[in-house]
Structures are given as structure tokens and as C-alpha cells.
Design a protein that fits this description.
The chain has 488 residues and is mainly α. It has one domain: Orthogonal Bundle (Hydantoin permease). Helices cover 77% and strands 0% of the residues. It has 21 helices and no strands. Helix 4 crosses helix 10. The longest helix has 34 residues. The chain is globular. The structure holds phenylalanine. Phenylalanine binds next to helix 2, helix 3, helix 6, helix 11 and helix 15. The site of phenylalanine has 16 residues, from helix 2, helix 3, helix 6, helix 11 and helix 15.
Length: 488
């Protein structure tokens, strides 16, 4: 433990962790997925539920992961093994680390394809390839972009290489350095885009759409999607945050850093909405066009506006940077595990990982063209990667993390790492023991189609279930009381 503490690299600057973790959190999830999900699930009500999920599940899980990483000072596998061994528990828990590491890698295998779209559209904007296109042309352009495996593959290869070059340069010289300029740059571009949106004529409609609460549009499906998205957007249970946490200096406050990252991530998602929807509304378009929102509707809208091409270019530069600062975090767990355990240099580990990544992501990329018929149970390889990670591995991993932190480890471990005021600690414990597991179980019920319950109208039942499991849990495990008594 002590040798690890001394030999593990740490973030150089005061803002190193916050920028890197925010860079990981802010990505395609915020700028591509969140706006179109908000569009599909009806606006303000979805946004509100999403905020509740971030606070009640996302923040407690993230705190747990950072604490596990910093305590164990290693990749998810090594860190979890050290932490459970310290508490005298079975090292089988390190399977949780394996799953997290695999999850990050699997997400990246389809993420590079979508990030490749962003680079491709940046190029189309720069080269004027979208000029004068109609609605139908836009759909055809999007289709053509995916139909050619060579060009689509070239764009995702570019993302793969860029990711591995940055990660290969190390935690301080690669990751910390690149997020140090990409994150501020991204925020500045986003602010410029919002300012542009304000003068577009659709800003009022966008504000109304994002923030007006309309209970009638709240559906169970939307609520569960919001919960699942909370995991994805905060990069949870995928090795990214845990590994970044393993480089966190001892004096940093985990509670405060987590809140900063969660707030920044949420602000960027809302800001992305404020940048995109005004332009959409100003052109009389619908917000609910799904995944094609920023690749078809938005470029079309930009074209019709003064200086639209310029702002379109800015938008896709911003999106590409957001994607890169996320993609580097998805492989860091694997690269860190390889360098720590296989006696190879970081550079070699990065290139090795990159080659496997390239092979698997190529297979995912083919789902859009020559592999369009290669389906299993109706899903392409691309869709399978998405389904397995977002719907199963992330919630399952999150459940493992909170049970580990909430029940399994000796209570002193988390209390020392988190170092919170007693009441805040008690709140965290209540969240990770009961609220987060219940929320996560609901995602499973939904993902596995176990039951078709209308959660939106059944919230009193859910509250009752929460109360019952809390009472049972606290009777079965006297640690909450003990830990509070021990502290004060
Ligand atoms: N949070 C990233 C996004 O919103 C995605 C991500 C998932 C990054 C898992 C790292 C690990 O796009």
C-alpha cells in the first residue's frame, strides 16, 4: 500500500483531476445524446428527472469509485483487489474491476465510430460538402457517410490513433496536458454558440422546451432512460473515473471534486441544449428527430443562417474535442493495468490496446454497411456493444461499487477516504446502501423487460419499497449507527 502510494503517478496541477474527469464525463453523451433524448422524452420533465438521477445515484456512485481508486492506487482490477484485501474480504471482488475495464473498452469500440461521424461532419463543413442541401439530401448524405466502409473506417481510425497517441504520452504529459487546453477551449466555443443561439430567434422556444415542466410528458421509459444516461454521462462503472481517481493526491476532497465534475457535466449538457435547440426552432424544425438531430437537422439549420457554416465548423470542432477527452479516459484503465502488470512501457501498452481496439471497432463500424445483415437477436454488433454496456454492465458495475462501499468494506475505509462531516457521510451511506441500488434495479427490470410497470405513476410504491429495504438493511447491518457513533 505504502509503496504504491509513493510510486503511483499523480495529477500535476491543482485542476488536473477535475479537468480530466470532467473531460471524461463531457462527451458525445452530453452534446449528441442528451439533447436528442430530451427531444424524444418531452423536454423539461425529462431534464428534471435526469437531475434527480444525477444527484441521487450518479454523485454517490462517483464518490465511491474515486475513493476506491485512490485507496487502491491502481487500475480497477488492482485497486479493488487491494482494497478488499485490506478489509479482509475475498479478492473475487476484483471481478468487478475486470468488468469495469472491459466496459470502458467496449464503449470505446462503438464510441470511436460516432466520434468519427463528428470528424467527418467537420470535414464536410470545412470543404463545403453540405452547401445547398435539402432535408432529403441531408438524410442521403448521412446514409452515404455510413455506407462506405473505407471512409467511415478512416474517420474512426483517426479517432483511435489520436486517442492512443495522447494516452501513450502518459497521465501528466498526455492526458492532463491535452485536457488542459481542450476543456477550456470547448467551453469557450460552447458559449459562443449559445450567444449565436440567442440571436437566432429560437432562444425563447428553446428555454421553454428545456425548462418548462410538463408532468404529462413524463413517461416511465423516459425516467429509466434518464437513470441509464446518468451512468453513461458521468462515465461511471467503466474504469475511467476509478483509474483517474487512482492518480488523485491524498489531500484533495473527494466530495467537493465529485460535485464540481457532476455540476460541470450537467451544465455542459444543458448548455449544449441551449446551443442546439434555438437553431433548430429558429428554422421551424422538430426537436424529436432522434440520433440524427445533430448530424442531419442541425447542419441543415446552420445552412439557412447567417454565418452558419462558420458556426457549424465551430460546433463540430467542439464535438470532436469533447469526444476525444472522453475516449482517452475509456482506455486509461486498460493501459494502466497493462503497464502495471505486464512489465511493458506505456507506449507499447497503448499501441497494443490500440490495435485490438481498431480491430473490434472496425467490426462495429461494419454494422452500418457491409455487415448490415450480421445481426444476432435483431441487433447489430454496434447495437450489442451499446446494449451490453449501457443497459447491463454499467448498472451492474455501479451496483457492485455501491454494495462494496456501502456494506462490504470495513467502514473505516470509506470514512477515511471520503472524510466528510458526519451528517453528510450518513447521507452518502444511505444513498449508496438503498437509494442507488433501488434505482439501479429499476434499470434492470426495464432492460431485461422483466416487468412492464408504469414507474411514473407508481412513485408512492417505490418510496414504500425504499423505506422497507432501509429498515431491513439497517436492522441486518448495524454499521451505520456504529460508524456515526465512532466519528462523533
Ligand atoms: N461520459 C462520456 C459521454 O458523456 C462517455 C463515457 C462513458 C466516457 C464511459 C468514459 C467512460 O460521452
Amino acid at each position: 500500500m505504502t509503496t504504491n502510494e509513493q510510486s503511483r503517478t499523480q495529477w500535476l496541477g491543482r485542476w488536473g483531476f477535475v479537468l480530466a474527469a470532467t473531460g471524461s464525463a463531457v462527451g458525445l453523451g452530453n452534446i449528441w445524446k442528451f439533447p436528442y433524448m430530451t427531444g424524444e422524452y418531452g423536454g423539461g420533465a425529462f431534464v428534471l428527472v435526469y437531475l434527480v438521477c444525477i444527484l441521487s445515484v450518479g454523485v454517490p456512485v462517483m464518490m465511491t469509485e474515486i475513493a476506491l481508486g485512490r485507496r487502491g492506487r491502481g487500475s480497477p482490477i488492482d485497486a479493488i483487489r487491494r482494497v478488499v484485501t485490506e478489509s479482509g474480504r475475498t479478492s473475487a471482488w476484483s471481478l468487478l474491476g475486470w468488468m469495469a475495464m472491459a466496459c470502458g473498452f467496449m464503449i470505446l469500440c462503438f464510441y470511436v465510430v460516432v466520434a468519427g461521424w463528428s470528424f467527418a461532419y467537420l470535414w464536410k463543413m470545412l470543404s463545403g460538402g453540405l452547401a445547398g442541401s435539402s432535408v432529403d439530401d441531408m438524410a442521403a448524405i448521412f446514409g452515404a457517410n455510413n455506407a462506405n466502409p473505407f471512409s467511415l473506417g478512416a474517420w474512426s481510425t483517426l479517432v483511435t490513433v489520436a486517442t492512443m497517441v495522447i494516452v501513450g504520452k502518459g497521465v501528466q504529459g498526455g492526458i492532463e496536458k491535452s485536457v488542459g487546453w481542450m476543456m477550456p477551449g470547448m467551453v469557450v466555443m460552447l458559449l459562443i454558440m449559445i450567444a449565436y443561439g440567442m440571436f437566432s430567434g429560437g432562444f425563447g422556444d428553446a428555454l421553454h422546451f428545456l425548462f418548462a415542466f410538463n408532468a404529462a410528458s413524463l413517461s416511465s421509459e423516459g425516467m429509466l432512460a434518464a437513470m441509464g444516461h446518468a451512468f453513461f454521462t458521468l462515465s461511471l462503472a467503466s474504469g475511467a473515473i476509478l483509474t483517474y481517481g487512482s492518480y488523485l493526491p491524498r489531500h484533495a476532497s473527494i466530495g467537493r471534486t465529485t460535485l464540481t465534475v457532476a455540476v460541470a457535466d450537467t451544465l455542459v449538457a444543458l448548455m449544449a441544449g441551449l446551443a442546439i435547440f434555438p437553431v433548430i426552432f429558429a428554422n421551424g424544425m422538430e426537436p424529436n428527430s432522434g440520433p440524427g438531430l445533430i448530424f442531419m437537422s442541425l447542419p441543415l439549420a446552420f445552412q439557412a443562417m447567417p454565418l452558419g457554416t462558420l458556426f457549424g465548423i465551430l460546433f463540430f470542432i467542439m464535438l470532436s474535442m469533447a469526444a476525444l477527452t472522453s475516449s482517452i479516459s475509456m482506455v486509461e484503465a486498460t493501459v494502466s493495468w497493462l503497464t502495471d502488470n505486464k512489465g511493458i512501457s506505456r507506449r507499447a501498452a497503448s499501441w497494443g490496446t490500440g490495435i485490438v481496439l481498431w480491430l473490434v471497432s472496425t467490426l462495429a463500424m461494419l454494422s452500418f454497411n457491409i455487415g448490415a445483415d450480421w445481426t444476432l437477436a435483431g441487433k447489430h454488433f454496434f447495437d450489442w456493444l451499446d446494449f451490453l454496456t449501457s443497459r447491463l454492465m454499467m448498472p451492474l458495475g455501479g451496483l457492485g461499487m455501491v454494495l462494496l462501499g456501502g456494506f462490504v468494506l470495513n467502514s473505516s475505509v470509506m470514512r477515511d477516504e471520503l472524510n466528510l462531516a458526519p451528517t453528510v457521510y450518513a447521507l452518502w451511506l444511505f444513498m449508496v446502501r438503498y437509494v442507488s441500488p433501488l434505482g439501479i434495479l429499476l434499470i434492470f427490470v426495464d432492460a431485461l423487460e422483466i416487468a412492464n410497470v408504469d414507474f411514473a405513476s407508481q412513485w408512492p410504491v417505490l418510496l414504500l419499497v425504499l423505506a422497507v429495504i432501509t429498515v431491513i438493511g439497517e436492522l441486518a447491518s448495524p454499521r451505520l449507527r456504529q460508524s456515526l457513533v465512532a466519528k462523533s
